[in-house]
Every structure is written in structure tokens, then in C-alpha cells.
């Protein structure tokens, strides 16, 4: 649930902190007092689109903070926070969003910086905002299938997951086929290009490791004279006229004579002896290399030419020899496919047909499950509508079969309704009034509220345009939802306000030529006055006060009855 909301420099709100409780919280006040601004703040905390217009005039940024409490560790928010590396302590989740004057938003969850898209994902598991204009979702037939699938989630999800995976592979494969079906001129040009490139790469005959060997060989050839000179000096110093090795041999022989007389010279004798034989081996090795050294200027030219060939191939076909060889194999395969295009297309079409058969099977399974759940949805909605005084309404889910696959299968789903006896059901967007749409959406919210895991449901003036017994039915329906989920509701209906477990009054006032919005949690006496005002307008009489008091008493009785049903 949303435990606390803090707002600073937001629209006409200067600095405001509001505490919320479980159950139904109703926000009332005059039009323009700032009720919807509070809901806008919650909407932005859940990742909604921001605007510079939200920043209070004269301020550099707007600051929004929401404290949520979710003690149920099986709630989806725990998995979501773990996915993004956000710690959660004792069920507390703090969403923070700063909207800066440069248009940028800074978002945090439990102190960790997150992107706006991550904030939106997390917010969607905590908050469900339903405004008076949100019923327009029902006016878009393309959205109806998503509402049905949401209702049928438990039965539908495993099959739909398989279908989605297959469908994505199917779309990708169709794009691959489309890339083959190019016009003949482009086909001929590509074949010529591949043939030229393959010929050039075959002639180059690049090999892994050869370039490194050539670089080393070029280094030796370029430094031949210095290598020969210095190696020769080393050899002469060891075995030449300087007799370095002979002198060490004399020292070794002398020490061998001494060690027979004094064991203290044993270690020194062994060291000198090892050095003599090691130097002797080194001299032989140096002499063998010197004998083989031969300067070949033509070989240096060959090496330079070959290395230049490697550089040319890299400029054309890849940064490394490995990349070039991979590209070489790729264009060889593509050339074979292009030269055998007809056979390739036939094989692709066979594979595509097989994929379509698998999709068809899964799509039929989706349709079967949807139709079964559609019947349950229709019955459930009509039951809810009866509670909302639409007893004669007949609601059905209409199915049409698409000619091709889409992300949802081959079903086109649309909601049909008849609100008058004797009239056949017709497309809901074409015949439903605004009040009827609100009641249908409220019916859906009632069915989904206990199953979708949302901790806070917000209704923003969804009761606009209704009155009388319908208003009372809507009030009771909203109150029923609040038994299992926290509900925040902006309302102009006294019936809804009377059902509140917590009642906030929103006022607008002017001080020192600045407009401020204030929020106060009103007690029972002030509730009677506020509900009386909602019933009669600005003039409050003893009779309206009496009616308001009676309405509150009746609401308490009805709320207790609802709670007893859930015990």
C-alpha cells in the first residue's frame, strides 16, 4: 500500500506530505482545488510522462517521493527489485523522482538510481491509476483482446508464451526469405560481387599466424647487419682470439685440483664448471646461426609485399584475419544460395510451411482457451453490471478469425453489449454511453483487483456523470474493491465520500499573491459538513446535514457487511 506521499514544488503545491491508510481513501474538494494534481504526482512516481509545466513557478525542480509498504514477500515487486539489484528492507519501497527545469528526470528506488523505464516497470506492479478518460481503452477494439487475455492469464499464459516465441522466429524467418526475393538485376550484381571477392580472397590465401611470422621475419631482415655484427662480437669474445672460454677452462681445471685438497672450493668449482659448459654450448649455437645467416634483399621485398597484401585485405574485409576468414566462409555460403536460388527458396518455403503449421496449432489452442474464458468473463461482467444497475445488459465477447498470424494468434476480439431489452448486442464503442463505459470498466477493475497483485488502485473521478442509485452502486463497488486492495479515489459523489475509511479535503488558498493547495484529514463532524456541501452545493442547511449524517451511518453498516463477507 501507499503509506506516505511527499510533494514539493509541484504545480500549485508548495510543500505537502500526506499519510495514507488501508481501505478506501477519498479526496474531495472544489473543482480546481488540486485533487487531480495529487493523482498526477502519484502517476509520475509510477513512471508517467513528465512536463516542465509540473514544476512550480519560480522553482528549479519538482520533488516527488512515495513510501510503499509490501510485506508479502511473494508479491511480484520483490522479484522485480531483485532483477534490478534494488535492496528492500522490511517491506519498505521508496520511489523518488525529481523533475528538473532542463526537462530531465532523476529517478531512484530505495536510494538507487534507475532509468525511467525501470521506474515505470516497478511502478506498474504497485499502482493502477484509472481516470475518467481511461475508459477510452474500452473504445479501442484493438485493446479488447488484451483485457480478455488479462482475465484468462492463468489458463492462457503457458500456451501464449510458446506461441510468442514461435511467432517471433516466424517473423524473423519471413524477413530472411524477403531478403532473398530481390530483383534479378540486384541478384546478378550481388553474384558478381561475391565471385570477385571470393576470387580475391582465394588468391590472397590468408593464413592464421602468417602475418605475425612475417612481421618477425621483416624485423630480422631489416636489422641483418646489426644482428650479424653483434653476434660475431659475442662469439669472438667467448671462443675467438680473446680466449674467454679458454681462460674459464683454465680456472675450472685449477679449481678441480684445489677441491681435491680443500672441500671449501667444491661449490665454486661446480659453478665455474657449469658456466664453462654453458658458454661452450652457447658458442656452438651462435656459430651455427652465424654460418646460416645470409642477407637476401629480394626476400625482404617479398615479405613487404605480402604484408601489404594483408593490410589491403583488412581494409576491405575485416579488422583481423579471423574476421576476414569468417566473412570468406559467409559469402561462399551466400553465393551457393544465390546460385541455387530456386532450390533454396523451395527449402525455405517448406520450412515456413512447417512453422505455420506449428503456429496454427498453437493459435487454435489460444482460441479455444479464450472462448472458454470469454464465457466466464461475460457472466462475471454481467453479474457486476447487475450490481451497478445495468440489470438488462447483455455482454458478449465476439470472435473473428484473422487471415494471417499476429502477436496474439489469429483472433480479433471485440466486446459487444446490449443495454436495452429487445436490442441485439452491438460493438461496445458504438453504443455505450460515458456512464455505461465507466461502469463496465469498474466491473473489470473489480474482477481484476484481487488477482493482479496491485497494492494501490487509484480512481480519478470515474463517477462523473452518474447519480442516484447508480452513484450508490458505484460507491459500494469501489468500497468492495478497497477490502482487498488500497483504493484512493477522487470523487464528487457524496455516496462515495461516505464510504471512505479516510477522508481528505483539498482546498486552494491564496497567500501573498501565491496560490497554495492544502490537504487536511477531516474528522467525523467535518465529514458531515463536507458531504452536506457535496449534496447541496455551497449552502448547508440542517436538513442537508441530517441527510449527510444518515448517509454516513448507512455507509458504515454497508461497509461492515462487506468486510464480513471477506472474513
Automatic annotation (TrEMBL):
Keywords: ATP-binding, Coiled coil, DNA damage, DNA repair, Nucleotide-binding. Signal peptide: none annotated. InterPro entries: DNA_recomb/repair_RecN (IPR004604), P-loop_NTPase (IPR027417), RecF/RecN/SMC_N (IPR003395). Residues 1-510 form the RecF/RecN/SMC N-terminal domain. Residues 331-372 form a coiled coil. GO terms for cellular component: bacterial nucleoid. One of its GO terms (biological process) is DNA repair. GO terms for molecular function: ATP binding. It comes from the Bacteria. NCBIfam families: recN. May be involved in recombinational repair of damaged DNA. Belongs to the RecN family. This is DNA repair protein RecN. It comes from Ureibacillus chungkukjangi. The lineage of its organism: Bacteria, Bacillati, Bacillota, Bacilli, Bacillales.
Amino acid at each position: 500500500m501507499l503509506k506516505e506521499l511527499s510533494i514539493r514544488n509541484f504545480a500549485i503545491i508548495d510543500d505537502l506530505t500526506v499519510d495514507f491508510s488501508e481501505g478506501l481513501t477519498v479526496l474531495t474538494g472544489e473543482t480546481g482545488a488540486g485533487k487531480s494534481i495529487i493523482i498526477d504526482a502519484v502517476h509520475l512516481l509510477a513512471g508517467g510522462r513528465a512536463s516542465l509545466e509540473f514544476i512550480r513557478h519560480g522553482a528549479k525542480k519538482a520533488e516527488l517521493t512515495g513510501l510503499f509498504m509490501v510485506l508479502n514477500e511473494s508479491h511480484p515487486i520483490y522479484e522485480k527489485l531483485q532483477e534490478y539489484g534494488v535492496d528492500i528492507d522490511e517491506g519498505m519501497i521508496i520511489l523518488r523522482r525529481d523533475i528538473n527545469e532542463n526537462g530531465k528526470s532523476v529517478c531512484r528506488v530505495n536510494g538507487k538510481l534507475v532509468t525511467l523505464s525501470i521506474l515505470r516497470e516497478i511502478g506498474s506492479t504497485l499502482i493502477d491509476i484509472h481516470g475518467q478518460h481511461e475508459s477510452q481503452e474500452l473504445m479501442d477494439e484493438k485493446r479488447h483482446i488484451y483485457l480478455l487475455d488479462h482475465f484468462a492469464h492463468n489458463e492462457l499464459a503457458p500456451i501464449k508464451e510458446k506461441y510468442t516465441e514461435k511467432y517471433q522466429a516466424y517473423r524473423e524467418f519471413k524477413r530472411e526469405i524477403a531478403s532473398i526475393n530481390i530483383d534479378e538485376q540486384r541478384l546478378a550484381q550481388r553474384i558478381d560481387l561475391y565471385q570477385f571477392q571470393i576470387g580475391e580472397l582465394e588468391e590472397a590465401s590468408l593464413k592464421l599466424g602468417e602475418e605475425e611470422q612475417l612481421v618477425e621475419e621483416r624485423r630480422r631482415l631489416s636489422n641483418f647487419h646489426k644482428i650479424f655484427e653483434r653476434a660475431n662480437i659475442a662469439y669472438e669474445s667467448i671462443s675467438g682470439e680473446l680466449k674467454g672460454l679458454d681462460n674459464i677452462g683454465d680456472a675450472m681445471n685449477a679449481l678441480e685440483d684445489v677441491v681435491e685438497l680443500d672441500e671449501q672450493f667444491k661449490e665454486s668449482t661446480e659453478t665455474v664448471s657449469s658456466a664453462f659448459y654453458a658458454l661452450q654450448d652457447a658458442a656452438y649455437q651462435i656459430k651455427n646461426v652465424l654460418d646460416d645467416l645470409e642477407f637476401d634483399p629480394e626476400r625482404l621485398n617479398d615479405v613487404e609485399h605480402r604484408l601489404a597484401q594483408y593490410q589491403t585485405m583488412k581494409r576491405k574485409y575485416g579488422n583481423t584475419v579471423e574476421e576476414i576468414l569468417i566473412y570468406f566462409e559467409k559469402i561462399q555460403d551466400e553465393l551457393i544460395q544465390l546460385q541455387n536460388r530456386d532450390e533454396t527458396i523451395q527449402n525455405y518455403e517448406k520450412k515456413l510451411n512447417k512453422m505455420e503449421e506449428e503456429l496454427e496449432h498453437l493459435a487454435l489452442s489460444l482460441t479455444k482457451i479464450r472462448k472458454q474464458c470469454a464465457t466466464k468473463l461475460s457472466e462475471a461482467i454481467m453479474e457486476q453490471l447487475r450490481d451497478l444497475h445495468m440489470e438488462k445488459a447483455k455482454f458478449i465477447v465476439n470472435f473473428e478469425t484473422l487471415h494471417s498470424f499476429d502477436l496474439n494468434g489469429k483472433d480479433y476480439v471485440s466486446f459487444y453489449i446490449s443495454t436495452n431489452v429487445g436490442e441485439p448486442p452491438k460493438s461496445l464503442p458504438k453504443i455505450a454511453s460515458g456512464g455505461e463505459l465507466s461502469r463496465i470498466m469498474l466491473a473489470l477493475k473489480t474482477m481484476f483487483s484481487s488477482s493482479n497483485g496491485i497494492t494501490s488502485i487509484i480512481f480519478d473521478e470515474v463517477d462523473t456523470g452518474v447519480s442516484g442509485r447508480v452513484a450508490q452502486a458505484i460507491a459500494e463497488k469501489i468500497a468492495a474493491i478497497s477490502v482487498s486492495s488500497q483504493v484512493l479515489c477522487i470523487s464528487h459523489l457524496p455516496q462515495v465520500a461516505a464510504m471512505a475509511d479516510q477522508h481528505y479535503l483539498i482546498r486552494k488558498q491564496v497567500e501573498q499573491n501565491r496560490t497554495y493547495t492544502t490537504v487536511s484529514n477531516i474528522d467525523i463532524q467535518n465529514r458531515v459538513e463536507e458531504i452536506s456541501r457535496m449534496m447541496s452545493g455551497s449552502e448547508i442547511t440542517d436538513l442537508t446535514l441530517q441527510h449527510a449524517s444518515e448517509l454516513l451511518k448507512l455507509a458504515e453498516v454497508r461497509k461492515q457487511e462487506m468486510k464480513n463477507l471477506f472474513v
